[in-house]
Design a protein that fits this description.
Distance between the termini: 55 Å
Number of helices: 15
Largest sheet: 7 strands, mixed
Helix content: 40-55%
Number of domains: 2
Shape: globular
Strand content: 5-15%
Structural class: alpha/beta
């Protein structure tokens, strides 16, 4: 029998799902991973999650669920890393379509359960942001996870909630999560990262990057997206814990409110009401700012000098690692320039990429 993994936060949780599949189940029969296609605006001009209409070449699994085979592509102007991810992973990636709210996603899960008769269903979230009540100051991406949690609560089958890498998403501190976590299901190690090693060379998700780094015994303090608080890379980083789904639903005001939603617009408004903002609002604003930013090539000498200046200041903050996304944002880059910077740094200073996908900031000589 196949296993079903629901990636609560999108593509990064899908990458973590591939690690989980290898670690827990050995990958003998690769799982089906149900995931959003929800990239951030720097990868394209269209904010929010992608629906089936944003892709060509999808393969229907059920009336409401579509898989991404090797030939799937996005329809411009939409951009998504999911087709490339589907080509790189042995797992079957299926598309969460949130346009019909939590009720619609629950129907997708129920259809997959009837089709697959899965041995287990895991709702996976890297970091633990899905456990937020809704009003936390550090909460930046509440809607995706809460919508997936609400849908799993409505689904007819038993779903197990797994939190990988407590605190690594920068949403809720690991210390705040400790009392909420159940048994330690496993601790990821370097061999569990190996099946996604090539993906980590290019995929932009920061939480998945830090999870993989922790599994490879990287320790320190990592600066990540939007100049948020630095994330400690500790021995807790590679752990995966089970949390009773009713406990998570009991904590999350947003998930409970979303349970009866039938449209994404309705879900987004509830997110604004409860959390003060929807991440799609932030994505709209960021996309607008990026559209006003003139495109420019990357001058290698200038970029390396600016990275050195960033590293000098970061050392003073006690930072030992950063993500490539954070570096690109610090340099004011947009679009393809992020990937150009990544390629430049790996080629110019490979010793600081230890191991991919984080950038190491060595102590001053």
């Amino acid at each position: 029998m196949v296993r079903l993994i629901v990636a609560a936060g999108g593509e990064g949780d899908a990458v973590a799902g591939a690690m989980l599949d290898a670690a827990l189940y050995g990958g003998e029969r690769p799982a089906v991973i149900l995931t959003y296609a929800w990239d951030r605006p720097r990868l394209g001009p269209v904010p929010g999650p992608r629906g089936a209409d944003d892709f060509t070449g999808l393969r229907p699994l059920t009336p409401r669920v579509f898989a991404l085979p090797a030939g799937a592509e996005t329809v411009p102007p939409a951009v998504s890393t999911l087709p490339r991810l589907a080509r790189a992973l042995p797992q079957t990636l299926a598309l969460i379509d949130p346009r019909h709210g939590a009720r619609g996603v629950a129907r997708q899960i129920d259809e997959l359960v009837r089709l697959l008769a899965p041995e287990s269903i895991d709702l996976l979230n890297v970091g633990g942001g899905v456990l937020a009540r809704g009003g936390e100051s550090g909460l930046r991406l509440p809607l995706a996870g809460a919508l997936a949690l609400a849908a799993c609560g409505r689904a007819g089958a038993r779903v197990r909630l797994l939190i990988a890498g407590p605190g690594l998403d920068g949403e809720l501190p690991a210390g705040e999560l400790r009392g909420l976590l159940g048994r330690n299901v496993l601790t990821l190690a370097a061999e569990h990262v190996q099946p996604v090693a090539d993906v980590l060379e290019w995929h932009p998700d920061e939480a998945a990057a830090m999870l993989a780094a922790c599994a490879r015994d990287v320790r320190g303090l990592c600066e990540a997206r939007e100049a948020g608080p630095p994330v400690p890379l500790t021995d807790e980083g590679p752990t995966v814990h089970e949390v009773p789904l009713p406990d998570a639903l009991g904590r999350s005001r947003l998930a409970r409110a979303l349970a009866s939603t039938t449209t994404l617009a309705e879900a987004e408004q509830l997110c604004r009401d409860i959390c003060g903002c929807s991440e799609i609002d932030r994505e709209r604003g960021r996309a607008l700012r990026l559209s006003d930013r003139p495109g420019r090539g990357l001058d290698p000498d200038t970029a390396l000098a600016r990275v050195a200046a960033y590293e000098h200041l970061a050392r003073g903050r006690g930072i030992s690692h950063t993500t490539f996304r954070r570096l690109g944002d610090a340099l004011g880059l947009s679009g393809a320039a992020h990937e150009d910077l990544r390629a430049l740094l790996i080629a110019a200073r490979p010793e600081q990429c230890e191991p991919p996908p984080l950038w190491h900031i060595p102590a001053a000589a």
